[in-house]
Predict the structure of Phosphomannomutase.
Amino acid sequence: MRDLSGVFKAYDIRGVVGEQIDADLVRATGAGFARLVGGPTIVVGHDMRDSSPGLAEAFAEGAAGEGVDVINIGLASTDMLYYASGSLNLPGAMFTASHNPAKYNGIKLCRAGASPVGQDSGLTDIRRDVEAQTPSSGKTAAVETRDLLADYAVYLRKLVDLSGSRPLKIVVDAGNGMGGYTVPTVFEGLPIEIIPMYFELDGNFPNHEANPLDPKNIVDLQAKVVEVGADAGLAFDGDADRCFVVDELGQPVSPSAVTALVAVRELAKDPGGTVIHNLITSKAVPEIVAEHGGKPVRTRVGHSFIKEEMARTGAIFGGEHSAHYYFRDFWKADTGMLAALHVLAALGEQDGPLSALTREYNRYAASGEVNSTVADQADRLAAIKAEFGGRDGVELDELDGLTVQLPDGAWFNLRASNTEPLLRLNVEAADDAAVAALRDEVLAIVRA
């Protein structure tokens, strides 16, 4: 029996093409997914990687061999696949490795209505099915192609009205990923001039990694925004489900500030609604949500936890520090494009620059994520807990790793990586000096 535990991850299937993932594995996975969902139809999309069309085709063959019809929407961003799954009420499969290098590919699976399939919600069953080499049923079903890009764009524009916006000039860095495919159609007809960067679809990522979370990958965007005098810049990751924002000065707008801004807009439509935020977003997010009459709910890091809480609470919106944004009106799924439209609508409704607009959502200084390689994660976490737990006025919680709240309002979270021997530290305090002091104090213990 083949062991696929290294390929079937917590939330998706991912690996090196030709070594860990090939057409035979994907064909068997398509059959296993078809058996899991039971048909009658599934929808499949893929990104711009060289390997993606062939793998998507093999997956469709496997599903069709189980008697399940397949709608292949071809090139798509991940949130476009979620749109297809939601609007058609069908299970779906998206072929992408997001921001990973060109040699990787993978599959994100969802049930009808874009409900996620993860380790505890079907992915383990599919893996066992594939490992056991369950024989095909030998049935045949239809595979049809359908273009949903225009429908996806119309749906997003219905959720955010930009018709009254002042004219805006926006630089968009697609990183040679799927934003280069979706942005022109989504923004067509809007009072927004798009200055494109790296819109050519190229899964080899010739200009920079399609991972805007790494500051080095938005340097070109920052320079271009200042050079052309743009009102803002947007950077998408490879599968265009995450969006990062840069203001007119070329400065990054933190995903926490975007979360707070979008939450305020969603609460204006649905007063008293619940907003989800993970525990390492800025504490400004729950403060601002509460100030606008909403109910903030704090969760662990990870999209499965956000989506579970969205479903449990009926939340209207959720945001993460990693620039994943989840909308009840988008089947509780994440879409960076919709968050970007909200930011641009807010900017276009008033005359000031984006830096002034977002200032009110930036209340504290933050370290960003600081990683430390350690020999024993549990031992170092215990050392931090022992050091800070005995101090007056300090509050500890272990919802996800260890969060330490200090009496002066500063806080930090220390979490173990699930896949590497790392501890991840995030610090927030009143100003940069306070952040640096607390960060260095914690790291001295972690790295001792």
Summary: The mean pLDDT is 96. The chain has four domains: 13-147, 151-251, 255-359, 365-446. The two ends are 43 Å apart (CA to CA).
